[in-house]
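Quick one, tokens below. Sequence please?
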């Protein structure tokens, strides 16, 4: 399994648009083949900073999503809302405690 963490910095006046778009697309992303889990976080103090956190079967599944028409459409809408370059990490989960 691959965990993908993406940091997104959104223009203040585009936050609601970003959230509405995420709400519209989240089920499509979550049910994309190979996606096991999806969450969206908002920084506690910086209201324009968001993080997506997702689990993928493997790197191939993530890359299939990143090259899909779904991702291209979401990216085309989201990219103009950024006020800084997005950052992304692909990580392996080593431990999980509940």
């Amino acid at each position: 399994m691959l965990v993908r963490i993406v940091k997104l910095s959104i223009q203040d006046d585009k936050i609601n648009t970003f959230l509405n778009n995420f709400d519209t697309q989240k089920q499509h992303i979550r049910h994309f083949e190979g996606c096991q889990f999806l969450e969206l976080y908002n920084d506690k103090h910086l209201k324009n900073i968001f993080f997506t956190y997702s689990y993928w079967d493997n790197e191939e599944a993530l890359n299939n999503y990143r090259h899909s028409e779904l991702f291209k459409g979401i990216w085309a809408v989201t990219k103009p809302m950024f006020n800084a370059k997005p950052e992304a990490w692909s990580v392996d989960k080593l431990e999980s405690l509940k």
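The mean pLDDT is 97. DSSP finds three helices and four strands in the chain.
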